[in-house]
Design goal:
Elements: E1 9-17, E2 20-29, E3 33-38, H1 49-52, H2 55-58, E4 61-66, H3 89-102, E5 109-113, H4 115-126, E6 133-137, H5 159-168, H6 177-188, H7 194-205, E7 222-227, H8 235-243, E8 249-253, H9 260-263, H10 265-280
């Protein structure tokens, strides 16, 4: 194997989110229509490595993935030690809009997974004019929690290992073994209490069932996707959400779990490519 660089650029972006200074780590690849990618709870933008290395995508899209504050290479804001991290719906929307504005993105496409797949529903309801397309992978308006978040931040439990253990059953069988374990490694590296704080959005503040009636897909097209092996956001959960939104396209995905872009990108691309081709052809 000869040494080489991946065609991905990583930089730090200094910006304000809600009036608070932040320093976010951002990676991007390709050129064309901006495609802003949102990682899952407790992880970071490395989940989109496969997408950034896909020439069929990067030939037409500028793929951008940022680590949310507190995640990956993005440190918490100053004073973080004095409060508990909790991701709210309003804070989540604010950071997505702030990154889009700071990078001067012209009506980007947003692709989110898990918490990122759910927040696209709020974006569709409140800010459709800002986006040319919204894609929610493992996204539904609500699922009843099946986990105990108290285990995710305790002094007598290894936080990274318990986070990875919690999500390990959400990865589909049959995908590349190395990609499965890389997906879990991302969870093992999360900061103390960060996964728990993200799940506060997912299980408490982020019940978006009431916003569905305000979504107009004529103003911004919306796609929802779900892997067949994901019991955290089952295909039937995604389909129920899609049926409540006229014009929403629902895509069940075979052979995939909760982390389609990182656990088995080749399989995920079979479903994602037609969506991106449709957007590029508009």
């Amino acid at each position: 194997m000869s040494a080489r660089f991946d065609p991905i650029t990583g930089r730090y972006l200094r910006l304000e989110i809600g009036g608070v200074p932040h320093r976010l780590y951002v990676e991007e690849a390709g050129a064309g229509i901006p495609l802003l990618c949102l990682h899952t709870a407790g992880a970071d933008g490395r989940q989109y490595r496969g997408l950034m290395l896909d020439p069929e995508v990067t030939e037409h899209f500028r793929v951008i993935a940022f680590d949310m504050p507190w995640h990956g290479k993005s440190s918490p804001p100053a004073g973080w030690q004095d409060r508990e991290y909790r991701l709210s719906t309003a804070d989540y929307v604010a950071q997505i809009l702030a990154v889009s504005e700071a990078l001067e993105l012209d009506r980007p496409v947003v692709l989110g997974c898990s918490i990122g797949g759910r927040i696209v529903l709020q974006l569709a309801a409140d800010h459709p004019e800002r986006f040319r397309g919204l894609i929610g992978a493992q996204g539904a308006a609500w699922q009843a929690p099946w986990y105990d978040t108290d285990w995710l931040h305790r002094p007598d439990v290894h936080g990274g290992e318990v986070c990875a253990a919690l999500v390990s059953g959400l990865v589909a069988p049959g995908g590349p073994e190395a990609d499965r374990h890389e997906t879990l490694w991302h969870y093992m590296q999360g900061g103390p209490g960060v996964f728990k704080g993200d799940l506060w959005f997912y299980r408490v503040d982020g019940d978006l069932r009431e916003v569905l009636a305000r979504i107009d897909t004529a103003r911004c097209p919306l796609w929802l996707m779900a892997g067949e092996y994901d019991f955290s956001c089952r295909p039937e959960d995604m389909l129920a959400t899609a049926r409540a939104i006229p014009g929403c396209t629902a895509i069940p995905m075979e052979g995939l779990g909760h982390f389609p872009m990182s656990e088995n990108y080749g399989q995920f691309a079979r479903y994602l490519h037609p969506v991106l081709q449709q957007i590029a052809g508009r």
